[in-house]
Amino acid sequence: xxxxxxxxxxxxxxHNIKKLHTGFGQFNFNLAKALxxxxxxxxxxxxxxxxxxxxxxxxxxxxxxxxxxxxxxRYPFFRLKKNFSLWHSVNQNTKxxxxxxxxxxxxxxxxxNFLEEETGSNLDFRINQLKNKIKRSDSIVYISEFTKISxxxxxxxxxxxxxxxxxxxxxxxxxxxxxxxxxxxxxxxNPFIFSIGQVVEKKNFHTLIEMLRFxxxxxxxxxxxxxxxxxxxxxxKIELYKLENRVFLLGIISESDKIYYYKNCLxxxxxxxxxxxxxxxxxxxxxxxxxxxxxxxxxxxxxxxxSFYWDNFDPEYMANVFNDGINQFNENKEMYTSAYKKHAQKxxxxxxxxxxxxxxxxxxxx
Length: 366
Known about the structure:
The protein is of the alpha/beta class and 366 residues long. Helices cover 40% and strands 16% of the residues. The protein has helices at residues 23-36, 39-44, 54-60, 114-117, 120-136, 145-154, 179-182, 206-211, 229-240, 255-264, 279-286, 299-303, 315-331, 333-344, 349-364, and strands at 8-13, 45-50, 65-67, 86-89, 105-109, 139-142, 162-164, 192-196, 219-223, 247-251, 267-270, 291-294, 308-310. The protein starts with 7 loop residues before the first strand and ends with a helix.
């Protein structure tokens, strides 16, 4: 899109957009997609994505601009030297920074889980990296109140504007009517619990396998990339408890398959130990499904008052919470279904984009 010489150039460091099956990839893509629809804003501002994924470019269209991403730009000598009006570091983990320290800088912080997940030199690097990003920021956005509180607890935040902008819900049930037709995956033959996410220890999926021993007939479907050591731990649990006919590890699934499992599951379960937000919770609520969550980190904030929560992960206790929750849901299904759908509708990428645009304008007008 042709812009005038006075157009403000807003650079979004979105190289993670190439990995659409990851949380950061989805965040980058959906925020960019929502911004691409803001015609009035784009008349006076050029939004530039750090992206060389042709599929993404085709999907997002020509209302946005694109900077070809090269991995070498992670290194200081090769940093981008272009004169942007504003640099938005879309996640706190990126090593890609502008060459100039004078460019106004917005940072989005998703979580500080690395404080519990990293050790040694890796931990030291991540701490110093985030400290430096915070120090050079003109404003900071957090994706949840929990993320803001936990960041303040561990880092010194300068006297700059701070905002909480919630992620949007990726799914719209009105756009999902073809999921049954397009479904190509495994179809459970009994009522099933569905869960999805990065298959790593913090997601705590193994507790669902252990819980299943104290439930009758219900099956468990877990989706996510299975090329991890933790995935092998899950397989060993399944074999140990002889649950091969009740627990199914699917790997990465298509969008239509994901929608199928949300629409047809008995319940959605997410016993994660650490979340900055917890988008799958809202995706499940879109279809009015009962939601079972750990009471850790941001999940109570995102899950709201009608979700069912585990205070600990003793398998028999988890099963009791699950069985009682299913009974409560079934006794007042209309109320729960309506409440879940209404809650999920509060979180939209359109709202998130408008709130980010407000922050952009405030920084640019300083």
